[in-house]
Design goal:
Length: about 700
Amino acid sequence: MYLRSWKTWTAMLAGAMLAAVSVCGGCCMAAEAGPNLIKCPDFAQGDDISPWYRDSGNAVITAETGTEPIYGDVTSYGKITDRSSNYECFSQDVTGLVEKDRDYIYSFYVMLDPADYADAPEQQRCVEISPYITADGNTVYSQGCSGTVNQVLEPGVWTHFSGIYTPSWSGNLEKVVIRILEQGTNYGQGEGVMGTYYMTGMELREQGTKESIIQTDVPKLREAVRGELGEEFIIGTSIVNSDLKDVDTMALVTRHFNAVTLGNELKPDAMFGYSNNKCPGTETVTLNGEQIKVPKLDYSRAEKTLDAIYDWNQSHPEDIIKVRGHVLVWHSQTPEWWFHEDYDVDKPYADIETMNRRLEWYIKTMAEHFTGEDSKYHGMFYGWDVVNEAVSDGGSRYRNAGENSSWWAVYQSNAFIINAFRYANQYMDPDVELYYNDYNEWFTAKRAGIVQLLKDVKEAEGTRIDGMGMQGHYQTVGSPTMEEFSKAARAYAEVVGQVQITELDMKASSGYDGTAATREEEFAVQGRRYKELYDTVKSLREEGVNISNITLWGVVDKNSWLQTFNAVGGAADGKQRQCPLLFDDDYQVKPAYWAFVDGSRLEEEKMSEESAPETAEASEESQTDPSGEENFGESAQESAAGSLESPAEESGESDQSETTGTKGPGKGLYGILAVCGLLVAGIAGFALVRSRKRDK
């Protein structure tokens, strides 16, 4: 029961060898970390385990010792039993030990009891690091972590978590608690197993500094793209606050991109200080001569990123980085209290007139603070996503209350969308372009709904809409076809004149399992897929379709949203790792990068592969069809009713239908990795014979 499986052993060995290869190849420099801030990290015999507590309920935490090492020579671990809630978990208070906005490296191992969790579905085997911070009476959960934040665990297998935790708060700090949490169904909001599980090796250390390891002997991405598509073309990426202190990530951003999207920091929940359970406090303001009570806004998180970009621009006027605002109106990541009387979820929904005042105040305040003539950030924003993901999948319908849209619950129409664009036009800097943004935007039926929305906005009095944001959460193998992408781009451009790809990444094929043995082939296939899309963009521009922007949703693979457990793709099966971006886990360029910089490298590589006497092809599952249920947006919901009401003429067709290659720089490293993969495979075979338990 407490033996690690051969899969876990080989994963650890592979990780160690990859680290060794990186060091030998001069690809990384270890950063010196501070002392471990966690007390009793291994539950060793004789240690005081009292710093660990259950956080809630009546669960019992004990220290146990096994016969086999879990990591290094550690055999001891903590055990939590008698749980009655998903939130009874390993918890430790680190108040006073961590500093605000400082980066800390976390690492730990977790295992689910094989008996208790044997028949549990994947969503009930999801474990995550879930710290919470209380300041000024407000508690914010599960913020500030990046890396391996959550995973679906296989019962009876020790699984490693690691990443960066950056605690942040506003006001007077009361408590910071680290929790190792088994979430259960729907991230703790539904039925969970509440079984026994184990934890050890918990570390929380202040991160040291390191020198950048990015490649400087490859062309700058932005220069290559603008050389082909024009100086005004935007090649962007998304960043979050935790990226700011990652030397390598920011070196890639400033070298290769000319624009950034703030991944989270300008969304409504961030602006309300992540006070999602209750209003963070109110103040009285004057709007159109009338005094109204509004929630307090917290600009600190957004300004942290914007200040960094501002400082860069001031010192690098030749390499200005522009900013995309994301997002003003979104059904997801908007606290529920925002929609209720007196900002109290226990009271009824506010009436439409009240919501119109709130919406106008919010957009006016955001616009003036970040884009106004007196703003420090005036001139930095090139565009803003006014409304995000308002159209249902699978048909020409708006998201309704059943799809988590309290906007629809209040308005019962698209009036909130029209008003959002009207207020944005009224208050936003006129040089800032206004966009509608959505995912699965290539679906035939959804395309028709989006086209109608764009027409309704454009034709309404007092509005302005400058373009359509096609998110571009696509698949390496499968959807969409370039014909489907092209039809959608043409349809949107015909209405609003401009199209931008705003959140581009590629979900891995089914043949990729995250190992060195399948990585090189996956990278090659993905590179050709990116080239196919880029070639299509160039072709569309030549025919007159104004595609003016390609923004990647993230910088390096390991920090992509697709790496963590979620309901919209990613590592939703708990096993499949992802490699969706242009730069790998070690900040090195991939074939996907060459798709934009020098596509001939990919063609040469493909010809070389085809001429090889034996080529192993990764198996591929059939992908979700355009009318299917798998969605890849920031917050996918199942399709529901909510008719797309509009007096305008219906539009759209009725048919059905989120490192270099072997010839690029880094060739030597990937050759070594391939050898390491073979070595790992050999070790795996030996370990499998000796293992007491065969993994599925």
